[in-house]
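Continuing the batch. This is chain 6 of the set; chains 1 through 5 are on the previous pages. Same settings as before, nothing changed between runs. Recording input and output for traceability.
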Amino acid sequence: MSENDPQLGSAADVRARIDTSKPHSARFWNYFVGGKDNYEKDRELGDHIKEIFPGLVDVARTSRQFLGRAVRHLAIEQGVRQFLDIGTGLPTADNTHEVAQRAAPDARIVYVDNDPLVLAHARALLTSTPEGETAYIDADLYDPEAILREAAKTLDLSRPVALIILNTLGHVADHERARDLVDRLMAGLPSGSYLVISDSTATSEGMIAASNEYNKSGAIPYYVRDVEEIGAFFDGLELLEPGVAQVTRWRPDVEDATTVDAYGAVARKP
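Output for chain 6:
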């Protein structure tokens, strides 16, 4: 991967797109999970939100753990070897390809994001076992067909794929539009594919207040939804046990009594 890869753009072009004058969700989340890829505005907002609702730190931590458990389950128990991760965010520990390829070295992973800072760090994600493959697409959630078209250069879309969209659909203000985007993506995947979604939810006054403060910051807004709206993304699919649940309650490795305002599920396309 060169510094001026045509798929990712030149390093100078990427840097020019990074706006540090206001917070950004990927950098804000990175700060909450203990990363270093953030700026002063992200940290200022993060500290302010912690004062309003300290529980958002638990949401960030446990959502990441949910991702790891879901990917492991799909790779080991369901035999999935292809993963399409949309809304990648900034690289931290146990990224999708690392979890998947530990369980199945021949797994193929495609990451999708269009944030310039994520793009600048994409090369850190583009590592792979010799048996598998990892790729990155600079693309927009609002163009599902383009995502599928580019993903098909790495993934075999005639075989099952796990579509992963974590902490991303909240950026789509209209719920019906968000559902349509998910439906269009799943329509391009074959029977036996899986959908993995989690998002923050409007299940406490603290989370609602934190969301309102975040949306006043100048960052791209993030809208917390009711649990029923999270469940609606899985309509027509076969939910794996325990269904739509708090991320801490979805097949935990160890019992976690933490109550969090984040729900997720994994479901199979019949």
